[in-house]
Amino acid sequence: MGIVQIDLFTTLDGVAQAPGGPEEDPEGGFAFGGWQAPLSDGTVGEQVVAGMETMDALLLGRRTYDIFAEYWPRQQGHIADVLSSVPRYVASRHPLRLAWEGAEQLGPDLGDAVRGLRERHAETHVIGSLDLVQTLLADGLFDRLNLWVYPLLLGAGKRVFGTGTVPTNLRLAEPVVTTPGGVQLQRYERLDGTPAVGTMSAGDAEGR
Questions:
Q1: How far is it, in rounded angstroms, from Cα 54 to Cα 167?
Q2: 143, 128 Cβ separation under 8 angstroms
Q3: How far apart are CA 36 and CA 19, in angstroms?
Q4: What residue range is the signal peptide (predicted)?
Q5: For the chain, first and last CA: distance in Å?
Q6: Exposed site from 26, 68, 128, 187, fewest CB < 10 Å?
Q7: What is the pLDDT of residues 41-65, one digit of tens each?
Q8: What count of other Cβ atoms lies within 10 Å of the Cβ of residue 161?
Q9: Distance CA 190, CA 142 (A)
Q10: Per residue in 63-92, pLDDT tens?
Q11: Whether domain 3-205 has CATH 3.40.430.10
């Protein structure tokens, strides 16, 4: 059985709207489109490429698919080659005409569709696609959550963990990677069950 990995760029206060550019998603009058660019560096690029090496399928929301389909087929380089070579699936409630060769729209039942992807592919990545990610988080339809956390506070914008987020246990799967500019890559695995609760004693607080 394969796994589904979510890859997101987010600020420290959880905003993941339009990291790539001002036109990416201006919904709600968002004024900080492109916030990722000033802090990206060679370490970010290396880790992004490394994370794609084992990807054998790509799952996107409609908006992100439109952005990718317009941009990546015209590019050259390793990332463009990977994105163009793997099967690409698009989640949308409305019928789509998908011009990017190799793209396929999923059926209306997202849960069934994701289970089908797990059966067909070893590692399906969801890149960006924040609206889709909200559904995957709420329905537990993911196995790993990879967050690029940028040292920024924007205060407004679409967030990774909104009001529909359900209580979920996560485990840090690998050591955190930190770039010279302070960006952190945090990789988590989803665990079964819901978060436990307890009472902190004075001894716990003092480390005894």
A1: 29
A2: no
A3: 5
A4: none
A5: 42
A6: 26
A7: 888 888 888 888 899 999 999 999 9
A8: 14
A9: 7
A10: 999 999 998 988 888 889 989 899 999 998
A11: yes
